[in-house]
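Notes from the 1:1 (GR / supervisor)

We went over the backlog. Supervisor wanted to see one worked example end to end before approving the batch request, so GR pasted a single chain during the call. The sequence is below; no edits were made to it. Supervisor asked that the structure be written out right there so they could see what the output format looks like.
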Amino acid sequence: MTRDDDQGGDTITLAEWAKEIGRTPEHIAIRWRPARDFPRPVGRRRRPGIPGPGEPVYDRQALEVWLAEWEKARARPRRRYEIPGDPNEMRTLGAIARLLGIDGKTLSQYRPMFDAHADHRTQGARTLYRTGDVVELLNHRRGAGVTSAADIDARRGRELTHQEATRLQAAATPEEWAAIARELLADGASRPSIGRAIGLSGNAVEQRLRDR
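Structure output shown during the call:
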């Protein structure tokens, strides 16, 4: 695992994979990656202009095979949700969850998937999503029927090492900071630990990453 992996369709970072399958990097790093049968990294990808060893990359097919087996082992009948009212209505995830009669975390854990595939817009400090898109994505999500909570994952993540904190603090631009932070999250660090390194809360870290 000493070679560099610059790009390529055969390899992927855990952060990239998390976005594709609608999970958070923390969920994968904390709940899945420690499993004995989880695929191991096949190399590292260095980002131009960013110091450090680079972010671990994984064989895409190996990850897909692992996920298929994981879902098969946990498959169970799941509830399908009906779209409440006008599917074009723009609402917060919390409002949609209340209309569906479910806990808000059931939706918030899939926020990366909704951000990537649902029609949405920012209104002040809130993000509004097209209700029909959210419900359809919820009904067809991968791994449905298995719960996770991104905020719990974030609290359970590991602390930064002194070297990692120093590297984060030395970031010259917001873009460089965000790239380093995402690499650390993919490697199991928690958002609160990243926030502590630069004097931010875990929520503020999440907001800053969304802005980059």
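Supervisor's comment: The first strand starts at residue 11 and ends at 12.
Batch request approved.
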